[in-house]
């Protein structure tokens, strides 16, 4: 592995490793003082109203930071970072680790010396303020540490796009480009959520299954999203006109077509927001990547992305009066 990437991966993994070690040390130290079932859910007044077995809680307490740390490290090694983009990514990792670590620690101490399943544990809402405060402080620390590292080279593909492919249009000529994004998991996920909601509604109670059914029904019209490039800019929509993602031409600097990595660059699938980029990501593969005026990237995975990016560059040039 490149030594520079190794250093950045270690820096990103560090807060999750600290949280993991802290959780294991606390669990071992306090094991004799913890009940068999820990209070893990609390009402608005701070009283316990939900419980989890001690073994299950401790396993999840160790598993969550380990998985989050692995995900952040993978993205640090395999993701694309240019300029100071890594700084915000690192800050987000530190904030996430601190937020989870604070809540886990508070929950463990709230259960110390309480009876098994008894309503002795309390959790005031002020702890949420503490969790967000810890996340803010950790984010500042992560950002400061990342700034100590040299900046990465600028994105060569974004620079090349300024001189890249265009689609020639005559004066007064109008053009548009539309493609659909085929994806098996979007309709599958939507249908699974609807079915799960129906089962939970009849097996338990409507309040349990209704949210899943609503979310699934909302997702269904967008199980085959459409990507449009025209004089309005870049638009991602479903079978219904709303909600949709609209990036107008005046916000776009350049556009290019390249392969993106769903997990390494965007942390997963769907509508993704990262420190220096966002996008509608349905798979790994070719995508239109628009570099915005504020320096962020917006990506949408779609076939024939080269044509869409070229037309987008032409329309941006025309709006600015460039030939």
UniProtKB/TrEMBL annotation:
Protein name: DUF1648 domain-containing protein
Keyword annotations from UniProtKB, A to Z: Membrane, Transmembrane, Transmembrane helix
Keyword Signal: no
DUF1648 domain mapped to chain residues: 19-62
Organism: Streptomyces flavovirens
Membrane-spanning ranges: 55-77, 89-112, 124-146, 184-204
Keyword Hydrolase: no
InterPro entries assigned: DUF1648
């Amino acid at each position: 592995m490149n030594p520079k990437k190794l250093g950045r991966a270690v820096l990103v993994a560090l807060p999750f490793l600290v949280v993991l070690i802290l959780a294991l040390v606390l669990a071992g130290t306090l094991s004799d003082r913890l009940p068999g079932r820990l209070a893990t859910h609390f009402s608005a007044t701070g009283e316990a109203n939900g419980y989890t077995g001690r073994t299950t809680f401790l396993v999840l307490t160790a598993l969550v930071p380990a998985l989050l740390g692995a995900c952040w490290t993978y993205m640090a090694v395999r993701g694309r970072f240019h300029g100071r983009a890594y700084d915000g990514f690192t800050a987000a990792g530190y904030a996430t680790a601190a937020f989870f670590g604070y809540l886990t620690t508070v929950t463990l101490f709230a259960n110390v010396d309480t009876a098994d399943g008894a309503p002795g544990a309390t959790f005031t809402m002020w702890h949420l303020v503490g969790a967000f405060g810890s996340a803010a402080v950790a984010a500042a620390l992560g950002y400061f540490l990342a700034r100590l590292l040299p900046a990465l080279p600028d994105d060569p593909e974004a620079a090349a796009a300024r001189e890249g492919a265009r689609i020639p249009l005559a004066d007064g000529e109008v053009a548009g480009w539309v493609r659909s994004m085929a994806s098996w998991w979007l309709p599958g996920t939507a249908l699974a959520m609807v079915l799960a909601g129906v089962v939970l509604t009849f097996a338990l109670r409507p309040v349990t299954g209704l949210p899943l059914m609503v979310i699934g029904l909302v997702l269904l019209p967008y199980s085959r999203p459409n990507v449009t490039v025209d004089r309005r800019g870049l638009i991602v929509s479903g079978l219904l006109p709303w909600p949709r993602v609209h990036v107008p031409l005046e916000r776009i600097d350049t556009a290019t077509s390249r392969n993106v990595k769903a997990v390494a660059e965007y942390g997963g699938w769907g509508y993704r927001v990262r420190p220096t980029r966002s996008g509608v990501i349905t798979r790994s593969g070719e995508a239109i990547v628009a570099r915005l005026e504020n320096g962020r990237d917006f990506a949408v995975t779609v076939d024939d992305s080269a044509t869409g990016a070229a037309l987008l560059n032409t329309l941006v040039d025309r709006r600015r009066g460039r030939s």
